[in-house]
Design a protein that fits this description.
The complex is a heterotrimer of chains A (315), B (216) and C (550). Chain A is α+β, with helices and mostly antiparallel strands and 315 residues long. Chain A contains six helices and twelve strands. Chain B has 216 residues and is mainly α. Classes of the chains: A alpha+beta (315), B mainly alpha (216), C mainly alpha (550). The interface between A and C is large, with 93 and 95 residues. Bound molecules: heme-A (2 copies), dinuclear copper ion (CUA) and copper (II) ion.
């Protein structure tokens, strides 16, 4: 089962954090224990059903044994001992999962319907989580509205993100790579789109990109916009193919006339798009809920320009 | 008025004893559900109080302890009279105690009504000054954060209790009418007994509410 | 069997024919008729919940993606509609179907018969419980038509407190349904305590009734807490009281504690009656005395008690303290042991029996296999380290369908086939009944087994759309539902056929030993001509070559 750990197994995704292996070892133990009990029980049921099948209508049972203290005591106490062992093992791994080592690199995580936002010690803000390899990372998480839950399958890490309080998770990723983040606490229409990524970078590359606030200024604006569409979380609420999600689709948006909830109208141009991203409550499109979060302070000017450039390409 | 109407045991019971003991067990189980219903509110009370201790202490002082005490005495008295009514029914041989049962029950109902009147004055005072739950809160005399929570809990607890008092009054009235017709005597007094049990529960809950809300 | 009426009484007018006309049903206080009305109602709600499940699965057939050519494919419903569908599916299945299913339908019908009583202790309360159930159902359906709710069946705050829609109506429907459940439970406890026939000692009580008794205790003790929780939620929404709102000084996680304090015991309200059915099926259709009567009876009570102490295992990653997690995990394992005892005892009961592979036995064997899978996967979830990974993924969805559908629903259909001849005095087509049971078993595994794999691979639940790597699992899963649907269509056909043309049966077609088989099929209005005197246990079957006469 867990032999090809790096690629993941039939049951489990790749093991990409230091304690993923511990979790999987326990998973495997319970798994094989279950296989044993399952085979034993199913085997017995099938065997009895064949062996003691009723062949004539008046056939009676050949045994009427009603109890056997020894057997009954055995199958009370043996499972009890087994589950106590599982409990202790599970608790020890859990303690390790729960308590971050001292001096872990701390990133603040903010969840809101429906996006993830990561704030680094130097004040940089991103929509995808960048972390250095081989370094314990501690996430201090809080929600601005509903319950959400931060889940990275490859790390075996999950915790609810609660409004009005802080929860934490930690992990250490030994290798560079990309890992998907899911929201696993139901939070409404955008729940299944509330995804993000953890991007594990080599240590020096991480430092380098941190200094530039993770903005990749070298690529053309429309392409950067296309990346931001998913990485900043817009894709949770806006489609690019005309499907209606939480918000209006961006397909063919640029240049159209817009009608707003207060009855006013405007033409979709660069200024309108910019305003929609920074002060979405100013003009709420008719027929949509006023649920778009503001990106003030989160997206830098170059990024907004890039998004606008990208929206313009969507015909 | 001093005669009795014989009770007929329902068809699916062997005898009156099986019938009355079933009814009593059923009532006790029902009382368990009532206690558990309130227990949810007691948990909410504890959690909210622990989260906001200073605000709680301050807000709790705005309640009128005198009125609360009066109500407590009124309810304890009514508990006593309803117990006497049950006793009278148990020893009612040929209907000679019908009047006594009715009198005690009427007195109990009167106590319940008095309780509700006092509550009415307490509530209307709160509506007047605006010490109300959630967004309706408009009082300005309290400084702690979120005092409306105290009143949220206060109104939920006393409101649910008040509903129980009203239901109790209805039940006792029905029993009184039947008692007046001579339905209850030494061999059959189940409704009086069960009604009494219910009324004791209503009192008991108040005995907890009073110190928790007014005195703590 | 107990000494009671000789079975050669001429067939008399049964409870079905005792009174005529629709009114005679609507105002009946006969526990048998109330049981039949409940049976019809829960079959209807199961069909409704099942159709919703088919829609849920249909949406998940393919992920909602954009092709190279820019076309959107895969979306059958919008996220909003999907969220309403699965919420409603969960609510209907839990509150309208599974909680009332076994106790209110079969419990009502057979409980008084099994203990040799003429009726339950409070027949009017029984009828009231049915009508309260109907009112709750109508309220739930109204809330559905008035826009539906999309909170998930768990109603977690703050989402449920802030989202628009008729949430208050739905919450009140669940509140009202809770009363129905309390009434039934209370009635059964008193009936079992006070109405047993002479000689029907606690040690002779059929295990189905031990299970119903334990269930009733949970119903009476846990449901009021749900009631007050739902009231608090309704207040929160209607008046903004703020108890669950951190912005107003409340506690957002408190609701979860309240909810699971009821809903964990509720999962045992769901499974215990199914377990009780199992004890009847494996004995009667193997003509074998139960193995470990005492252990099975006491384990029901143990489950009922411990089940109140484990609710926190639904909240391991909710931010509760590590030590709370530790205690809840430990207690969760304790509550698994009584279930383990039962499963092993049923298997042991089959040893040396005379096993007839008829429809009830096929359902019973399905239970043994499917519930074992469901229960054993509960061990992964009760273990702290693995639950962190598995929580709120399809692994949990698969777990609870294996226990609720593979356990309770399977037992329910086993009971339906077992007591059908008693209830209606007619046999169903055995051949098609076997086909239906086998088809269900296959369809069920095809539907839910892949969900374990995609769950542990990381597929979160309550997603209307998903990343493409999970597509193959979802496709297999969705196709399985069609087999399940087919098996139920077959069942519906042969059961309706049986009602009209089925072969008439004798009082005791299975050769069972418990009292409900001692009166004619279908029973007369007052169950027995005279109250029977019980002299034997419910599982005293004769042994081959032994002296005991049949
Ligand atoms: C009928 C209903 C039912 C039953 C009987 C159970 C039975 C069990 N459940 Fe389940 N459960 C649910 C219905 C049920 N559950 C539902 C509906 C949810 C999700 C709700 C939601 O979130 O929407 C849930 C969720 C759930 C969780 C939370 C998961 C999460 O959200 O992260 C957990 C965690 O501990 C859990 C554990 C268990 C355990 C340990 C048992 C045990 O009682 C199982 C005991 C049985 C066995 C163990 C098998 C037989 C024994 C043997 C074959 C012998 C050998 C055994 C050993 C060596 C141990 N369940
Ligand atoms: C008793 C409870 C119960 C039952 C029986 C079922 C039965 C089924 N459930 Fe469900 N389910 C839940 C309780 C139940 N479920 C709960 C509590 C949730 C969580 C909700 C939430 O997250 O809030 C859930 C969630 C849930 C999900 C997850 C949704 C998500 O997270 O996004 C899925 C997905 O596959 C699913 C599928 C199914 C399927 C395919 C069946 C099938 O077994 C259904 C089979 C039935 C039929 C196909 C009916 C066919 C009938 C006929 C054709 C007529 C025959 C007529 C007669 C016999 C009279 N269920
Ligand atoms: Cu955020 Cu689900
Ligand atoms: Cu549980």
């Amino acid at each position: 089962m867990a032999s090809e750990t790096a690629q993941g197994s039939f049951w489990m995704p790749p093991e990409a954090s230091t304690f993923a292996g511990d979790v999987d070892a326990l998973f495997d133990f319970i798994y094989w224990l279950n296989v044993f009990f399952f085979v034993a029980i199913t085997g017995a049921v099938v065997y009895f059903a064949i062996k003691y099948r009723r062949k004539s209508d008046d056939q009676l049972a050949t045994s009427q044994v009603g109890h056997n203290t020894l057997i009954e005591a055995a199958w009370t106490f043996i499972p009890l001992l087994i589950v106590i062992a599982i409990f202790v093992w599970g608790f020890r791994v859990f303690l390790n999962q729960s308590v971050a080592p001292d001096g872990a690199y701390e990133v603040k995580v903010t969840a809101k319907a429906y996006l993830w936002q990561y704030t680094y010690p130097n004040g940089a803000v991103t929509g995808e989580l960048f972390v250095p390899e081989d370094t314990p990372v501690k996430l201090v998480m809080s929600s601005e509205d509903l319950l959400h839950s931060f889940f990275v399958p490859d790390f075996r890490v999950k915790s609810d993100v609660v409004p009005g309080r802080y929860t934490t998770v930690w992990f250490e990723a030994p290798d560079p790579g990309e890992h998907v983040v899911f929201c696993t606490e139901y939070c409404g229409a955008g729940h299944s789109g509330m995804m993000s990524k953890v991007i594990v970078l080599p240590k020096d590359e991480f430092q380098e990109r941190l200094e530039k606030d993770f903005i990749d200024g070298d690529i053309p604006p429309a392409e950067m916009g296309a990346k931001l569409y998913t990485s900043a979380g817009c894709s949770a609420c806006h489609s690019i193919n005309g499907t209606r999600l939480v918000g209006p689709s961006w397909k063919g948006l640029f240049g159209t006339e817009r009608k707003f909830a207060d009855g006013s109208t405007a033409k979709v141009d660069e200024n309108y798009l910019r305003e929609s991203i920074l002060q979405p409550m100013n003009k709420v499109v008719e027929g949509y809920p006023p649920s778009m979060p503001s990106y003030q302070g989160q997206l830098k000017d170059v990024q907004i320009d890039a998004l606008i450039a990208y929206i313009k390409t969507l015909k | 008025m001093s005669s009795i109407v014989k009770h007929h045991v329902a068809h699916h019971f062997y005898d009156g004893h099986q019938e009355s003991s079933s009814a009593k067990l059923g009532m006790w189980l029902f009382l368990v559900t009532e206690v558990l219903l309130f227990s949810g509110l007691f948990v909410a009370y504890t959690v909210i109080k622990t989260l906001n201790p200073e605000m709680w202490a301050e807000a709790s002082k705005t309640l009128d302890v005198t009125l609360g005490t009066v109500n407590t005495i009124v309810l304890i008295t009514s508990s006593f009279t309803v117990a006497l009514a049950v006793r009278a029914a148990q020893t009612n041989k040929n209907g000679e105690k019908n009047k006594q049962i009715v009198g005690l029950l009427v007195f109990t109902i009167a106590c319940a009504a008095a309780f509700m009147v006092v509550k009415y004055f307490e509530y209307s005072h709160k509506f007047h000054v605006g010490t109300l739950p959630g967004p309706f809160y408009s009082y300005e005399g309290l400084e702690g954060a979120n005092p409306h929570l105290f009143y949220g809990v206060y109104f939920l607890m006393t409101g649910l209790h008040g509903i129980h008092v009203l239901i109790g009054m209805g039940v006792l009235t029905w029993i009184t009418i039947r008692a007046a017709k001579g339905h209850f005597y030494e061999d059959y007094y189940t409704p009086v007994e069960l009604g009494g049990l219910y009324w004791h529960l209503v009192d008991l809950i108040w005995i907890y509410l009073f110190p928790l809300l007014y005195l703590v | 069997m107990a000494t009671t009426e000789t079975l050669d009484h001429a067939q008399e007018v049964s409870y079905l024919g005792a009174k005529k006309g629709i009114m005679s049903w609507l105002v009946t206080i006969d526990h048998k008729r109330i049981g039949v009305m409940y049976l019809a109602s829960v079959l209807a709600t199961f069909t409704l919940g099942g159709i919703l499940a088919l829609l849920v699965r249909a949406e998940l057939w393919a992920p909602n993606i954009t092709t190279e050519a820019g076309e959107a494919v895969g979306a059958l419903f919008s996220a909003d509609v999907y969220n309403r569908l699965f919420t409603l599916h969960g609510l209907v299945m839990v509150f309208l179907f599974i909680i009332p299913s076994v106790p209110a339908a079969f419990g009502n019908f057979v409980l008084p018969l099994m203990i040799g009583a003429k009726d339950v202790a409070f027949p009017r309360l029984n009828l009231a419980s049915y009508y309260v159930y109907v009112i709750g159902t109508v309220m739930a359906l109204y809330a559905t038509i008035a826009g539906g709710v999309d909170t998930g069946w768990t109603f977690y705050t703050p989402y449920s407190a802030s989202v628009s829609g008729p949430v208050v109506m739905m919450v009140m429907a669940a509140f009202v349904l809770g009363f129905s459940s309390i009434f039934t439970g209370l009635n059964f406890i008193v009936t079992i305590h006070k109405m047993r026939a002479p000689g029907m000692t606690w040690q002779r009580l059929p295990l189905f009734l031990w299970a119903i008794y334990a269930t009733s205790i949970i119903q009476v003790m846990a449901t009021p807490v749900l009631g007050i929780t739902l009231c608090l939620l309704a207040m929160e929404r209607a008046m903004g009281v703020g108890i669950f709102d951190p912005a107003l000084g409340g506690d957002p996680v408190l609701f979860q504690h309240f909810f699971w304090f009821y809903s964990h015991p509720a999962v045992y309200i769901m499974i215990l009656p199914g377990m009780g059915i199992m004890s009847e099926l494996v004995t009667v259709h193997a003509r074998k005395t139960i193995f470990g009567y005492r252990a099975i009876a006491l384990s029901s009570i143990a489950i009922a008690v411990i089940s109140f102490l484990v609710w926190g295992h639904h909240m391991f990653v909710s931010g509760q303290s590590v030590y709370a997690g530790m205690i809840f995990s430990f207690l969760t394992f304790l509550v698994a042991i009584p279930s383990a005892i039962k499963v092993l005892n049923w298997v042991a009961t089959l040893y040396g029996g005379s096993i007839q592979l008829n429809a009830p036995m096929l359902w019973a064997m399905s239970f043994l296999i499917l519930f074992t899978i469901g229960g054993l996967t509960g061990i992964f979830l009760g273990t702290l380290a693995t639950d962190v990974h598995l929580h709120d993924t399809y692994f949990v969805v698969a777990h609870f369908h294996y226990v609720m559908v593979g356990g309770t629903v399977v037992a329910f259909f086993g009971a339906l086939h077992h007591w059908w001849p008693k209830m209606f005095g007619r046999m169903y087509n055995e051949f098609w009944a076997n086909i239906s049971a086998v088809l269900f078993f296959i369809g069920f595994n095809v539907t839910f087994f892949p969900q374990f794999i995609m769950g542990s691979q990381g597929m979160p639940r309550r997603y209307y759309n998903y990343v493409e790597e999970f597509e193959v699992f979802h496709k297999i899963s969705t196709s399985g539902t069609w087999l399940i649907g087919l098996s139920f269509i077959i069942m519906a056909v042969y059961l309706i056929q049986s009602l009209r043309k089925g072969e008439k049966v004798s009082a005791n077609p299975w050769g069972a030993r418990s009292l409900e088989w001692a009166t004619q099929s279908p029973p007369i209005e007052h169950n027995f001509h005279e109250i029977p005197t019980v002299t034997e246990g419910p599982y005293d079957f004769p042994k081959a070559g032994g002296k005991k006469a049949h």
